[in-house]
Amino acid sequence: MKLKFREAEINDLEMLVSLLANDKLGAQHEDATLPINANYSTAFAHISRDPNNELLIAEFEGKLVGMLQLTYIPYLTYVGSWRCLIEGVRIDETYRGKGLGKQMFEYAVQIARTRGCKLVQLTSDKQRPDAIRFYEKIGFTATHVGLKLHL
After folding, report:
1. Which three-class secondary structure state does DSSP give residue 24?
2. C-alpha to C-alpha distance for 67 and 64, rounded to whole angstroms
3. Of 98, 116, 139, 151, which is least packed with CB atoms within 10 Å of its CB?
């Protein structure tokens, strides 16, 4: 299965929200009701206008099957280098376990390299052990403790 990648368009938004909401944790955090919550449209507009954000779509045979968001962050650390934060990773449940996530991450890491990033980082909820195993399998290591404060 070979994926095609592109930047998300506003017409994809309904499907993106559906992907985000389609698991145990996502169902608690997302609002997949229709019509789509206006907050998603506002967020999409901000992401689309920001040159340091990309919302990527993975397609297989013309069908949207995956997504992730890349955010490029300049740092003073690592000698003033850039890093890429990967968030909002989802693969449609009917396509999981077929190597698509690996393809998606290989593509994302290549984009980060092209942008001059020296580090790619992500977080994953501890309640997603399968996702954590996947990230470790493709080379990510748990070198830091991530903390969050919900506001």
Report:
1. helix
2. 8
3. 151
Task: Calculate ∠ Cα 78-56-111, nearest 5°.
Answer: 40
Task: Sort strands 4-7 and 82-91 into parallel, antiparallel or unpaired.
Answer: unpaired
| The model scores a pTM over 0.70 | yes
Q: How far apart are CA 121 and CA 114, in angstroms?
A: 16
Give the pLDDT means over successive 10-residue stretches in the chain (151 positions): 95 96 88 95 98 97 96 95 96 92 96 97 92 94 88 93
What angle (nearest 5°) sits at the alpha carbon of residue 28, between those of residues 92 and 103?
25
With respect to CATH, is domain 4-137 assigned 3.40.630.30?
A: yes
Strands (E), 15-95: 53-60, 63-74, 82-91
Pick from 142, 141, 138, 124: nearest CA to 68: 124
